[in-house]
Design brief:
The complex is a heterodimer. Helices cover about 0% and strands about 55% of the residues of chain A. Chain A has no helices and twelve strands. In chain A, strands 2, 5, 6, 10, 11 and 12 form a six-stranded mixed β-sheet that branches. Chain A has a four-stranded antiparallel β-sheet with strand order 3-9-8-7, with no helix packed on it. Chain B is mainly β. Chain B has no helices and eleven strands. In chain B, the strands form two sheets. In chain B, strands 2, 4, 5, 6, 9, 10 and 11 form a seven-stranded mixed β-sheet that branches. A four-stranded antiparallel β-sheet of chain B has the order 1-3-8-7, with no helix packed on it. In chain B, a hairpin with a 5-residue loop joins β7 and β8. Classes of the chains: A mainly beta, B mainly beta. At the A-B interface, β5, β6, β10 and β11 of A face β4, β5, β9 and β10 of B.
């Protein structure tokens, strides 16, 4: 069975600081990995995805993530946080060939001025 | 292209009633998945439909059901509502050439 662990239910950063949101996965087959963002009272928006091409994946809004098979990790980073980045972030995994997503519990990113 | 739409956006129901939620996928997408989001359990997969057939099902009781129509629109139904069914219900559609799921804004169901 697949699972996703997101370390830290809340992460606080100052505007302009590095953002690092951690995600570790467990999967019996090479997975597809995703990061989604959710703003209050909205659905999920796809930030980026890993589907076995380049291990460093660039997404929207300046975010990127690196797939590390040896560490079973897919951490999300952004060099400089903006106030508008404050939201909840979800890491998700799916088996290749299937579209069912298994989500982590989410990390709330708080950005202070 | 228009995004995934869900109706209604908000619902208030009483325990024991039933409810039907609707989802219209992105044009051309044939797969529709449903998820339940609660503060305690997070995001949990309910079921997925592809070409009017249920392809995958999550670990939810039989009170939760769904269907998909020939135009790919999908509905989910919850019968005999319980307080614990209060949640944000999200629908997502997937194209045939991608594993990306595009989510709608959700339906916020409150059971009193």
């Amino acid at each position: 069975a697949q699972s996703v662990t997101q370390l830290g239910s809340h992460v606080s950063v100052s505007e302009g600081a590095l953002v690092l949101l951690r995600c570790n996965y467990s999967s019996s087959v090479p997975p597809y990995l995703f990061w989604y963002v959710q703003y209050p009272n909205q659905g999920l928006q796809l930030l980026l995805k890993y589907t076995s091409a380049a291990t460093l994946v660039k997404g929207i809004n300046g975010f990127e993530a690196e797939f590390k098979k040896s560490e079973t990790s897919f951490h999300l980073t952004k060099p400089s946080a903006h106030m508008s980045d404050a939201a909840e972030y979800f890491c998700a995994v799916s088996d290749r060939g299937y579209s069912t997503l298994t989500f982590g519990k989410g990390t709330m990113l708080l950005v202070s001025p | 292209k228009a995004g995934v739409t869900q109706t209604p956006r908000y619902l208030i129901k009483t325990r024991g009633q039933q409810v039907t939620l609707s989802c219209s996928p992105i044009s051309g997408h044939r797969s529709v998945s449903w998820y339940q989001q609660t503060p305690g359990q997070g995001l949990q997969f309910l079921f997925e439909y592809f070409s009017e057939t249920q392809r995958n099902k999550g670990n939810f009781p039989g009170r939760f059901s769904g269907r998909q129509f020939s135009n790919s629109r999908s509905e989910m139904n919850v019968s005999t509502l319980e307080l614990g069914d209060s949640a944000l219900y999200l629908c997502a559609s997937t194209g045939t050439e991608s594993y990306e799921q595009y989510f709608g804004p959700g339906t916020r169901l409150t059971v009193t």
